[in-house]
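[Automated response] Your request has been received and processed.

Submitted sequence:
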Amino acid sequence: MLSGDQIRVMELLPSGDEGPAAPLRCHVHIVSLSSNPDYEAVSYVWGVPDGKTSIEVSGRSFGISSNLDALLRRLRYTNRKRQIWADQICIDQNNLSEKTTQVKMMGDIYSKCRQCLIWMGEIPESVPQSGVEDAIHLLEFMATPDDVNVPEFLSTRDKFIKVFEVLYLIHPHGNTWWSRIWTVQEVILPERKTILWGPKVLSWELLSQAMHTWTTQYMPSLMDILLDEDFQEMNALSANIVWINYGRNSDLPSILVTKWRNRKATDMRDKVFGLLGLVPDHVDLEYTGRRTCESSVAEVFSSLTLDAILSTDSLQPLVLNPRLEDDIATEGISRWAMDLKGFPKRDADTFYRDWAHDHYNACNGRALDRAFLRSTVEAHAGSTRVLGVSGVMVDTVQIISPQRSTAPESDARISENLRAWYKLAASRQPGGVSAATRPEFDEQFCRLVVADILEPRDEDDPESQSRMPNAEDLENAWRFVEEGIQGPGELWIKESHMPSQLCNQIFFVTASGMMGMGPWDTLPGDEVWVFDGGNYPFTIRPRHERGSKGEFDFVGCCYIQGIMFGEWFQKQEELSTQRIYIY
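Generated structure:
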């Protein structure tokens, strides 16, 4: 049995005179991480166990996956032992208590290893040796283009494509290592990492430097022969490398799990457990820490969401499209919890939302009711199914537009939808829209279209700041609404800002005539609230079961024109704060 900070390390025995075909053999011993043991950790895709491969552990046969079998055969020395940490062998997978403890230690296990050995798999026999050498040559050239001769295969795109098809074997779109959740922290945490690709050994630094050059330096011999789809594939590799290289102790839990939400896991609990080693040291995972490998997936996800809320001291995690549609959602999950099973079918622009969250202040600086959140958990016997929040009700959704904004869409289609929204909103204004009130109404609608705040045009320019839209911006937005025409320099409309604000949103008008946008499944009768600690407003749906007063189902964050900067609190003399429960 393991205790404290103990782990198992396997001593992989040499093949000796038997050669590569020799059976795999090892001894396993227990060490304490605090004693700084010397070992190498492996990162690989488990694959499906087929019962055909095994390793002899201290004289007893132990079944392992064929992918681990292939990796260990590549790692095994001829005449000396090798100290390896591999989860299949070093964790008792049938002991859930041990598995829970060891899973939570994975961050330390990979942080303290001498190096991480990343297994990209064997090279198919159909790939010629020359093709592999050319693929590596391409990386070497990209890493140091001024020091390496221009490869001959860059003379034409056809020749380049043949080489890139080989490189694709270790590309995020061509190798499943990049798609698994566990490999994220396994590659981020170690100080040193080495890529094993069949018999080839590549340093992680080679890949990193190649992608750094790709993003910072113009290489005419390469870039002049590429088409758009080639750039997209290179950019995909570059993005993964950058996220990994800058992924250590940099993200709060809500952004961390959102960033890697597309990674796959056989056990959905691993979408949380597989990233725990990357959570900054100062973040207290109080509720997640209570969960085990026997906890339900729904409980693990909701616990992480509560910890994320407490770590940001705000409702920012609820802004990041946490909820999946009912037909694809995790079984039994609370609608407010971050459902990391996948992405919504109608996904809003998550990272735009995160950016905008820091600029809005719908709650007018009112602090998150941490005490009520915690007492709600304890009142439900430690379950994190119910979210206790305090806030004020603003209004009720009265009518929704049948025209919905999807992504991507043409300018003409977006403009057509906006005109339909405008017409609906105008028809629902108390007293109508007169000649005297139309200029103000038009301005408010245009502010909604551009989210009432504009992103900096150049993120790398410190002089370029986020700002409120001015008269010229609003005039340009109105021209787009009316005609679908963009003027010179209006990149904020097409390339990022307007599509990000409108992406997969439904337009609605409240009972008092307020204009808003929210999730596609928003319904008439949903209530608009501003919660303490919420920079965005939210829509929630009253529960109509007997005895459900003060209980609501979560719908999502929304945008309501005219209250995003705390105006609701500033213009009301007295507001009654309520404590409610959200499911």
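Summary generated for your ticket: The mean pLDDT is 93. The radius of gyration is 28 Å.
If you did not submit this request, please reply to this message.
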